[in-house]
Amino acid sequence: MFVKRGKLLSTCREKESHSRHLRGLEEEMEVQVARVEQRVRVEERERGDAERDELRRQLETEVAELRANLSRLQKVCATM
Question: CA-CA distance, 18 to 67, in Å (whole number)?
Fold first, then answer.
């Protein structure tokens, strides 16, 4: 009877130890997931900013080209 009780207590302690270890691993995993989510948010924001800046540069180039063309046309029309 005492052997079974001792074995049962040992098994319970082992189970509790495994449960604590598992909770620790779960907490560590949650921390890692939070870090990855934050890193991805920052990367996506930076990528979006870079895309926006590139579009802005393209539009500014187009506007500059259109202004140059308009200026040339105005000069041509003025000479006629």
Answer: 73
pTM tops 0.85, yes or no? no
Q: Which two tokens stand for residue 37?
A: 């989510």
The vertex-43 CA angle with 42 and 47, nearest 5°, equals: 120
User: What does each C-alpha distance from 23 to 20, 30, 36 come to in angstroms?
Assistant: 5, 10, 20
pLDDT tier, 80 (very low <50, low <70, confident <90, very high otherwise): confident
Token pair recorded at residue 79: 């000479």
d(CA 24, CA 31): 11
